[in-house]
Specification:
Helix content is 5%, strand content 54%. By secondary structure, the protein is mainly beta. Strands 1, 2, 3, 5, 6, 9, 10 and 11 form an 8-stranded antiparallel beta sheet that branches. A 3-stranded mixed beta sheet has the order 4-7-8. β5 (82-98) and β6 form a beta hairpin.
């Protein structure tokens, strides 16, 4: 299953500065997660009778290796994704009425976080194919005899801890030319920094 808990919390303040001026400020914090939680009870090493020593101790779920058999559906431990987003946004909007014009100015700054584990096959991955050196030329016979083509196993479970900053600014005017004509125009600027990695382990 994939649980997806999340939350959004906002604190805002609207101030009337004068009969023609108002200001609106807000701070919001949001968080969302994706938790991949497959039922692996029947796939653990002890449940399927696998007892060979692993090359590395990274097997997070103590499950047997992923198996790929040429011509058949693959078998693996499924989706164990752990993903989290966290955003902080600070925003301020100012409004000024001047005659037939209603001016609006605003700015925001946001900090974006994305944390995610890489869904590597840290339990190991074995492939059976009749092109293996000791193949019987029958892939099912190779599986029964343990004649695999290759075996790989991840030594670590790297994670992504990405960070980005967003800056924004806008100016807008609502110009009431007459009772039948109103013109809205404005300009908006947004600047997005490049993603950076918190632990400096990715580029």
């Amino acid at each position: 299953r994939r649980d997806r808990p999340g939350s959004l919390n906002t604190l805002s303040l609207q101030t009337i500065l004068s009969p023609t001026m108002t200001n609106f400020a807000s701070v919001s914090v949001s968080h969302a997660r994706i938790n991949g939680v497959p039922d692996l009870t029947l796939l653990t090493r002890s449940a399927i009778g696998v007892n060979y020593p692993e090359l590395y101790p990274a097997n997070r779920s103590a499950v047997g290796p992923a198996v790929a058999i040429a011509g058949y559906a693959n078998y693996n431990a499924g989706d164990r994704l752990q993903h989290g987003n966290g955003n902080l946004q600070i925003r301020d909007d100012f409004t000024k009425v001047a005659g037939a014009h209603t001016w609006k100015f605003g700015a925001l700054i946001a900090r974006v976080r994305q944390n995610e584990n890489t869904n590597v096959r840290d339990e190991g991955s074995v492939t059976f194919n009749t092109s293996a050196a000791n193949s019987t030329r029958n892939v099912i016979a190779d599986v029964l005899l343990g004649n695999f083509q290759n075996y790989t196993e991840a030594s670590t479970r790297p994670s992504t801890e990405a960070r980005k900053t967003i800056l924004g600014f806008f100016v807008q005017d609502t110009f009431k030319v007459n009772r039948k004509l109103t013109i809205d125009y404005g300009v908006r600027f947004n600047y997005f920094t490049q993603w950076t990695h918190k632990t400096k382990k990715a580029a």
